[in-house]
Amino acid sequence: RTDKTCFFAGETAQAECWICNDTQLSGSRTLRYELLHGGKVIAEAAQPAAVGANTACCNSIVSFALPETDRREEVTLRAILLDGETVLSWNEQVYTVFPPCAAPGPVLVRRAENVTEADIAYAAQGGILWIDCPAEGFHTFDGSRVQVKLSGMSPFHFASRKTGHPWVDGFQSRDFSCWYSRETDSITPLADSTMVAEDFRPVLTSRNLDATGAWQEENVLCEKSVGRGHLVLSQISYSMMLDNPAGQLLLSQMTQTSALH
Hints:
The chain has three helices and 17 strands. By secondary structure, it is mainly β. The two termini are 44 Å apart. The model has no long low-confidence stretch (mean pLDDT 95).
């Protein structure tokens, strides 16, 4: 098992190998790992595994280098528990490998309560002002009214990229789901709130309750053109964007696209 399944090419990935034995059998066995890419085994290793009767334990943590690639691909880590040459059990974990991307350009990150007129002017002059996780309630940014609403149910582990925005061109349906947080070293919700924002264009969305209790699509990340630049509102923290390849790619596309205007 692992909490992070998406990486850039050449990075090192990890997985925990748990042996869950609901039988009375015990003793020394062999645990073999195989890393598969394009249907071929590109790396393998083996180690002893002590199996206890009616126990579940983390036997080991395996680390492995992901292959270099210039396109999006998948690799599979396979773990096989052996008694001699007899396979007792096996399982697989799939990893998504992204090609390297250009580093994001400059972005001015602010909390909503700290935004100044000078920050808005920075955006108007061609910069990107990123307002990080504005709190529940009503806000006004550059004359546009914004309502931030807590989720009507649980925090969001998923956001939709089906907005037609150029910043999310090329992404797949599950790229903005089950994200990893370096701070907690675990899968962490993307956000706990959505936004209804005048004059802002949706980039990523989810669903939340309206005033009548009906579900509607609302913003998780949205943007507004300000002069020659952009004002971005995001319920996904900037630090979490940097923790995940899809987030880094979005930031890269955001800054590259903005630089062209």
